[in-house]
Amino acid sequence: MVHVTDKYLREDFLYSLTIKNDSFVLGIDDSPFRKNIDRTARLIGTLMRLGGRIDGFFIERIVVDGDNGTDAIISMWKKIRPQKLAAFLLDGVTLGGMNIVDIEKLYSETSVPVICVTKREPSIESMKEVVRKHFPDNNYKMRTLSELTVDTIELRNRRKLFCNLKGIDPIEARTILERQCTLNLIPDAVRISHLLGESVKFGSSKRR
Q1: Which domain holds residue 112?
Q2: pLDDT attached to residue 5
């Protein structure tokens, strides 16, 4: 685990020189779903420049508690591949219940760095226990969780984020998160995807 704090400011600044306002991120979140009722959920992607401009939205379907979340994100990426993505941004590694994103595969097939953020430190072992109990024969979920590591990133305002990273180091991830977490600890592109998912599902969204 790497704990990134202000002692890394010089490296952070040097990397920030290479990230321009017209660099893109794709913020991804799932729409609400009814547990044990809905078989699928919408996956929303918001294409956003680090300068704050929104350039598009993407919607895919994922199976609740399934294994197609990674492929759904890759499908979004194929639609915007000509654009230069600085990173995929996700609210944790799980979508639609226990549809776990394989960040190793996602980075391997797209060469786009992956940043999964949570406000509380995730317990990978607790997630493994859920898989053992409810998906005992699913080796994919267990393998994907076993490959995860957690980095702690402290933003300049002393707020902490816990991140699963692939294809990007914590210093570089911090630079992107500083530009994206303008209202709270949820990256703007992810927050917008969340609000859009609620609106599509319920006709309106709650402030997040």
Answers
A1: 3-202
A2: 54
